[in-house]
Amino acid sequence: MCGIAGCIGSPDAGKILIDALKRLEYRGYDSAGITLGGKKLHTVKTAGKVAALEAKLLSSGYKGTRGIAHTRWATHGIPSEANAHPHLTEDGTISVVHNGIIENHQQLRAELEKKGHVFRSETDSEVIPHLLEESGESDPLAAALYAFGRLKGSFASAVLFEKYPDQMICACHGSPLVLGLGDGMNLAASDMLALAPYVSRIVVLHDGEAARITANSAELFTISGAKSIQLREEPVPGEARNADKNGYEHFMLKEIMEQPEALEHAFAGRMNGDRGVPTFPEFGLSPRETARISRIVTAACGSSMHAGLTGQYYFEDIAGIAASVEQAAEFRYRNPILEPDTLVLAVSQSGETADTIAAVREAVAKGAYTVGVCNVPDSTIARESDCRIYLHAGPEQSVASTKAFTSQVTTLLLFSLFLGRNRRLSRDDGLALMREAERIPDLVREVLKHADEIRDLARKYAWAEDLFYIGRGCLYPAALEGALKLKEISYVHAEGCHSAELKHGPIALLDEKVPVIALANRIPGQEKMLGNIRECLARNAPVIAVVSGNDTCLDSFGVDLIRVPESSRFTAPVSTVVALQLFAYYFACERGCAIDQPRNLAKSVTVE
Ligand code: F6R
Question: Which label site among 109, 169, 191, 297 has the fewest CB atoms less than 10 Å from its CB?
C-alpha cells in the first residue's frame, strides 16, 4: 500500500531515492518522507506528493551517501507530516520506513509507552523504531531481528542507524521487498521498477527474511533464527527497465495502447500444435486429475474479480465445469465449502492484494489445489499458490488496471480451452476457438484505431455526474468493469448493471441527465439488449451503444455509437472493455482529473 526505498553507497542518495519514490508513487501518494545519512541522520517529511518532498529536500540542502524513503497511502492516521514516514526514535538516531499493517501495534505501543517511549504519530509503524531501541542489542541486525520478530501482520521495512553508517537493514513478511545490487551501491525497494535504472542484479526477499546491506555486500538471514541464507541473485528483467511513459501523457494511456503487444505475450508459447489445446506446462495436475475437477472457484477483487466473472462464462461454456466467483474477502470469511476436486483460482495483477492472499491461504488450508493467475512474478500469491500462471503483461503502473485486465480475461479464455480439451471439447471446436482467441490482439488494435472518435464522444458526455453501464451474457462483467474504470479515475458515479436487472430498481434513476452505456454487440442476447435500450430511451436517458462492426441494428434509435470489430461472445469482452477504458480515460481527462494517481486509491491493496 505504500512504497519504500533504501540506498547505500551513492554520492547522492537523495537524488536516487526521490527518483525511486516517483516510480513507486502508484503505491500511495498522500505523504512522503526521506532520511539521509552522512555523519548524522537528517529527515524531511511532508504531506502531499513526492514532488513536494523533492522541493523540501532541495531547500533543506541535506545530502547523504545512504538513505531510506517512503511514499504513503494512509491506513493508520490521516495523511500529515507527523504520520509520514520515516519514523524515528526520540533521539533521532534510528530511522525506519515501513509498508504493511502491524496487527499487534496497539499492544506493542502500550507496552513501549509503559517503558517511557514517547510516540509522535498515530501510525502502527512507529512501534518499529521504539522496538529497535528497546532491543538492547548492540548489533543492528540483531536489533532488527528482535524488533521484526515481535511484529504480527505484514511488513516490508528498511532501517538506518546513525551509529552504523556502513549498513542498512531490511526485512519483509507479507509485503514485497526487492534488493538491487549495483557497483559500489546497493538499493532496496518495494518494486524492482524503482531499482532497475541503477542496478544490474536483484534479489527478491521472501517472507520472513531480513537483509544486511552495505555499499558492496548483501547478506540474507531468516528473521526467526538469524540463520544465514544464500543470496538468490538474478538479472534485472528487461521489462522493468522499460517502465517509462514512452511519450504518452499518462501511464494509463500508454498501458491501454500497449495492449495488443501485452496480449500477444499472453499467447506466447501457448499456441503450439494442431490439437486445439493451448499449452499450460505450469499447471501441475495430471490429465487424469484435471479431468476430475468438478468445480472452479475464483477469488479476486476489483477489476481482477471482473476478469474472474468473465472467466466464469468460459469455464462453464467451454470447459463444461461449474464455476463461481467470490469477492476474495467474502471467500475468506464465509467458510467456503471446497471439495477435493475443487480448483481455486486467485486472480490478481499485483499478487499482493491482502484479501486475495488470505483467500489463497484459506483454500490451501482446506486442501484445494490453488492456481495464482498473476502479473507480478514471484509475488506472494504466485509463491503461495500450488501453481502460478503468469500474464506476462509487463509492469502496470497506472492505478486503474487496463492491460492486466484484458490479459487476465485472455489467459482465462485459453485456460478454459485447455481444461475443455481435457474433457468434452472436440478437437475441431478447440481449434476453432483457438483461431478465434488468436484474433484478440488484432481486435484490440482495431479498437485503438478509433481512439479519437471515442475521445470525442467522451468529451461530449463529460458533463454527466451519473452513468449506467449495462450488459448481458459475457458482456455483463464488461459493463461492471467499464463502470469501475470511469468512477475510479473521473470520480463520477457510474454503475454497472445487468441489462435485465435495470427494471428491477435502478431504472428509477434514469432521466435525461443520466447517460446509459449499453453493450449491444452482435452476440447472443442482442435482441433483448435492444429492448433494454428502448426502455432507457423511453425514460429520456441518452444512450451510447457499443455495436459490432457495421451493424445497423441501432440506426433508427438515434443513439451515439462506439463501433468495435465483429467478434464472438468469448472475445467481445476484451475488445469492448478496451473501448470503455478509452472512454473513461478521455472522460476523466476532459474533467481535469489526476489520471494515474486518482484520489484515495493505491495500486496494490495490501490491507483488508
Ligand atoms: C481497478 C483496479 C483494482 C484492482 C484490485 C485488485 O482498476 O486496479 O480494482 O483490480 O485492487 O488488485 P490485484 O489485481 O492486484 O489483486
Answer: 109
Among 189, 223, 242, the domain boundary falls at 242
pLDDT at 39: 87
Reading the block at residue 486, the C-alpha cell is: 470511469
Q: 486-525, pLDDT tens digit by residue?
A: 999 999 999 999 999 998 999 999 999 999 999 999 999 9
Is residue 490 domain-shared with residue 431, that is, in the same domain? no
Instruction: Say whether 2 is catalytic.
Output: yes
Contacts of 563 (CB under 8 A, 6+ apart): 450, 546, 547, 548, 549, 550
Residue 460 and residue 428 in one domain: no
Candidates 97, 130, 118, 107; CA nearest to 6 is: 97
Distance 415 CA to ligand 1 centre (A): 21
User: CATH number for the domain including 517?
Assistant: 3.40.50.10490
Give me the mean pLDDT over the 116-134 stretch. 95
The CATH number covering residue 217 comes to: 3.60.20.10
Look at residues 213, 242, 271 and tell me which one is the last residue of a structural domain. Answer: 242
The whole domain housing 293 covers 250-438
Pocket of ligand 1 (CB under 6 A): 301-304, 348-350, 353, 356, 400-401, 484, 488, 604-605
Rg of the chain over CA atoms, in angstroms? 25
